[in-house]
Amino acid sequence: MASSLLQVSVVAADQEVWSGAATMVVAKTSEGEIGILPGHEPMLAILAGGEVRVTAEDGSKITANAAGGFLSVENNNVSVVASAAELVG
User: 6-9: which pairs have CB atoms within 8 A and are 24 or more residues apart?
Assistant: First the structure.
C-alpha cells in the first residue's frame, strides 16, 4: 500500500529551509501552479519565483518564498531546490 504522506525537503543554495512529512505541496512552476499529493507521478519541473506551500503532517501550513531552481517528485519524496528560499511568517 502506498504511503499516505510525502517526505518534503525545501532547500536553498546555502541552507535547508524546511523538511518533514507532509500531506500536500503546492508550488509555482514555469508551467503554472501545481499541487502534489501522495502517490503523484514522478516529475521534474522548473520553479517560478513565488511561494511553496506545504501542509505538514499535523495540518500546520508552512510557506516559503523560493526563487529559481527546480522541484522533483519521486516515490512520495518531494525536493524543492532553489537558488534562494526563506520561510514566510
Answer: 6/36, 6/37, 6/38, 6/76, 6/77, 6/78, 7/76, 7/77, 7/78, 8/54, 8/77, 8/78, 8/79, 8/80, 9/77, 9/78, 9/79, 9/80
pLDDT tens, residue by residue, 19-31: 999 999 999 999 9
pTM of the model: 0.93
CATH classification of 6-87 is 2.60.15.10, yes or no? yes
Between CA 20 and CA 49 the distance in angstroms is 22
